[in-house]
C-alpha cells in the first residue's frame, strides 16, 4: 500500500530535507569496557565524559588492529 504525501507530517519532511551531516570528530576520551561482542568486533563502553549527543554508554566498532581477547572488562582505557 502506497502512503499519500499527506500521511507524513510537514515537520518530518522539513527535518529530512534540512538535515546536515558533518564529518565525525576524533575524540580522546576515557572509560571502561562493559561488554564485548567478539563476532561483531564491537564493545559497549561506559565513558567518563559524555559524547556529543549526551550519551555516556556507547557501542564502539573496533579496528582490526585491536584484539578483543586482549581487552578486559572494568579496566580504564583511552578511546
Can you walk me through this structure?
Helix content is 10%, strand content 28%. The chain is mostly beta strands and 79 residues long. The protein has a domain of 54 residues. Strands 3-2-1-4 form a four-stranded antiparallel β-sheet, with no helix packed on it. It is elongated.
Task: Determine the mean pLDDT.
Answer: 88
- Largest sheet composition: 4 strands, antiparallel
Helix/sheet category:
mainly beta
Report the total helices: 1
Q: Strand portion, in percent?
A: 25-35%
Query: Can you count the beta strands?
Result: 4
Low-confidence regions: none
Helix proportion of residues, in percent?
10-25%
Radius of gyration: 19 Å
Please list the strands of the largest sheet in the order they lie side by side: 3-2-1-4
Order of helices and strands: HEEEE
What is this structure, in a nutshell?
The protein is mainly beta and 79 residues long. Helices cover 10% and strands 28% of the residues. The longest helix is centred in the N-terminal third of the chain and has 8 residues, at 10-17.
Amino acid at each position: 500500500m502506497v502512503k499519500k504525501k499527506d500521511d507524513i507530517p510537514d515537520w518530518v519532511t522539513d527535518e529530512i530535507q534540512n538535515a546536515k551531516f558533518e564529518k565525525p570528530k576524533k575524540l580522546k576520551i576515557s572509560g571502561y569496557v562493559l561488554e564485548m561482542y567478539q563476532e561483531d568486533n564491537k564493545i559497549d563502553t561506559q565513558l567518563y565524559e559524555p559524547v556529543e549527543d549526551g550519551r555516556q554508554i556507547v557501542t564502539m566498532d573496533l579496528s582490526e588492529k585491536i584484539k578483543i581477547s586482549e581487552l578486559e572488562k572494568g579496566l580504564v582505557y583511552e578511546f
